[in-house]
Design a protein that fits this description.
- By secondary structure, this protein is α+β, with helices and mostly antiparallel strands.
- The chain is built from five helices and five strands, in the order H-H-H-H-H-E-E-E-E-E.
- Strands 1, 2, 3, 4 and 5 form a five-stranded antiparallel beta sheet that branches.
- The radius of gyration is 23 Å and the shape is elongated.
């Protein structure tokens, strides 16, 4: 009796793994960006960054606390122009895990003030220049919760509201 009929071809295992890899890559590429809950600090930062990316200047200004916004409007934000970027929650070496409260130091100094919430984000920039020019920067957004709404305070990236005060 021959066992030739019950033997699995050697090419079948690598081909099966190849198909599995293609399927997993297709699934990963088909997933869109993560949508965070807008009622969280991270979600408020995402709303702000998406509004900037989509050039919805008034929507970006609407997430900035009035004390930080001063006399600025969406038109003031628009004057800085469009910045091409992608953003990622947290950054390498971030011991706050993307969102957290800052700590008071032994001498009593606080940097930044206690009770403020910060959302750490890595902003990735790229240009159409030669050699694939790109860079990243780490940004900490300061937020304040009032009546269930998270407001961005301070001078939020990349627009410095002191410019229109």
């Amino acid at each position: 009796m021959s066992e030739k009929g019950s033997k699995i071809p050697r090419w079948l295992l690598p081909a099966g793994l190849g198909v599995l890899v293609v399927i997993l890559v297709a699934i990963a590429l088909a997933r869109g960006p993560v949508s965070l809950d807008p009622e969280t600090a991270e979600g408020a930062v995402q709303e702000y960054l998406v509004a900037l990316s989509d050039e919805r200047w008034d929507d970006a200004a609407a997430v900035i606390h009035e004390d930080a916004l001063g006399d600025c409007t969406g038109d003031d934000i628009a004057m800085f122009g469009t910045v091409d970027f992608t953003a990622e929650l947290g950054f390498e070496g971030d011991f706050f895990g993307g969102v957290g409260m800052r700590e008071t130091f032994d001498d009593g100094a606080v940097n930044p003030p206690p009770g403020d919430t910060f959302v750490d984000v890595t902003i990735h920039h790229s240009t159409d220049g030669g050699f694939g020019s790109s860079w990243s920067e780490h940004v900490s957004f300061e937020l304040l919760e009032e009546e269930g709404f998270w407001w961005i305070t301070g001078d939020p990236w990349p627009y410095f509201v002191w410019n229109c005060r």
